[in-house]
Amino acid sequence: MTNFKSKRVVVTGVGAVTPVGNTPEEYWAGLLAGRNGIGPITLFDASKHACRIAGEVKQFDPHQYMERKEAKRMARFAQFSVAASHQALADAKFVINDLNAEQVGTIVGTGTGGLDVMEAQHEVYLTRGPSRCSPFTVQMMIANMAAGLTAIHTGAKGPNSCPVTACAAGSNAVGDAFRLIQRGYAQAMICGGAEAAVTPLSLAGFASAKAVSTRNDDPARACRPFDLDRNGFVMGEGAGILLLEELEHALSRGAKIYAEIVGYGMTCDAYHITSPVPGGTGATRAIELALKDAGIEPERVDYINAHGTSTPANDKTETLAIKKALGEKNARDLAISSTKSMTGHLLGGSGGIEAVATVLAILNDRMPPTINLETPDPECDLDYISNGSRAKTVNVALSNSFGFGGHNVTLVFQKYA
């Protein structure tokens, strides 16, 4: 086994199924254009719900990526994962075969797994009896099936896992995959997050917890991170997948390199099931640990893709954490955006699509905006790129993800050189 951190790890492929586009190209174009992906819920009748809006994936055809019979036996979140993973492999021109399959792994995080299947089959159980429940109920609803089915559909026989760390799950998946390649356990990893939690029960629960926006009459402006008038997050769905690859392996096959992943920090607030710890000490430490892991000084950070949920507690706490971790001056010199303002909050899938956005910002030297930031909160006083996308050389970028239960994750990417 190789020594810890002896391997450099790069991103060679990306995949994305999101409310603003069902391919990485559509997703990136949508982000740069400030396209709103949030609207009235169409997946079910939400007329009795307090919140009736979400960022839904539109015009998604799973049969582009799998046989019709296979799609019927797969929950929506797993369909998203398989689709985005096929995109990432195709983008990287990476072929899994008998020679390399055991060196290619899969880690896909999720917050709720097949919640849509669980709710639908429970209704079948109540109305038609236990004998009418699908024999695929358990297989479809369990959270690990995005990772498992992605491996089955791609042939990846290496390390396989599924973080279920709420809204930090996608970022944990990327970070854990990074570690496995660093330590020599795999040459390449399919990793990211997938979620399809826009369901009646999930929406009702979040609304009862006063966590989601109820700006139903104005969905385009409902998600407004760092804005004084924010009143909760908006749910989203989809998947974001990265193909990580050991550098020498990528170079040997002439791969296109998007960026290098160089740091991973994770902590726990150990404070409250939903609220961040006052002062943002857990998030601060995650950022600090990620930068230390990367060997990067705070002044070198150019861009942060923020967790930026549009909730009163998160946005001001994250702002404070950034200031504490990087120093006040450095925090004011860099640019920040919350792409959730356009996609909504994908929960366990958010870290995946936001990591994709972060590496694309590095590759293209362009940072997506935070839409709907009209009246800045005085406690959120950093540069949140509120007036359209911005061109700037992005050498180092962070992606933050924080989840219920106090999970905090920061990933560090840098321009490959």
From TrEMBL:
It catalyses: (9Z)-hexadecenoyl-[ACP] + malonyl-[ACP] + H(+) = 3-oxo-(11Z)-octadecenoyl-[ACP] + holo-[ACP] + CO2; a fatty acyl-[ACP] + malonyl-[ACP] + H(+) = a 3-oxoacyl-[ACP] + holo-[ACP] + CO2. Coiled coil: none annotated. The active site is at C167 (for beta-ketoacyl synthase activity). PROSITE patterns: KS3_1, KS3_2. Residues 6-415 form the Ketosynthase family 3 (KS3) domain. One of its GO terms (molecular function) is 3-oxoacyl-[acyl-carrier-protein] synthase activity. Pathway: Lipid metabolism; fatty acid biosynthesis. One of its GO terms (cellular component) is cytosol. Pfam families: ketoacyl-synt, Ketoacyl-synt_C. Gene3D superfamilies: 3.40.47.10. Involved in the type II fatty acid elongation cycle. Catalyzes the elongation of a wide range of acyl-ACP by the addition of two carbons from malonyl-ACP to an acyl acceptor. Can efficiently catalyze the conversion of palmitoleoyl-ACP (cis-hexadec-9-enoyl-ACP) to cis-vaccenoyl-ACP (cis-octadec-11-enoyl-ACP), an essential step in the thermal regulation of fatty acid composition. Belongs to the thiolase-like superfamily. Beta-ketoacyl-ACP synthases family. This is 3-oxoacyl-[acyl-carrier-protein] synthase 2.
